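Protein PhnA, Rhizobium giardinii. Tokens?
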Amino acid sequence: MDVRDSNGTILNEGDNVTLIKDLKVKGTSETLKRGTMIKGIHLTDNPDEVECRHAKIKGLVLRTEFLKKA
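Tokens:
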């Protein structure tokens, strides 16, 4: 099962990705801005989602359609 970013590039465990769209984070007042670098992603059982860490938000899950490999 391949996990692919918005451009169709295969993502691997620990890759760095960049957001391609401003995203509001549910449950917080935070907005992650377009171009934000997310380091060290963790693949999940769902090929459309990856887990990651951000400085202000713990347990963040992002959909791969909003990411591109850095």
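The beta strands are 17-19, 23-24, 31-32, 37-38, 42-43, 49-52, 60-63, 67-69.
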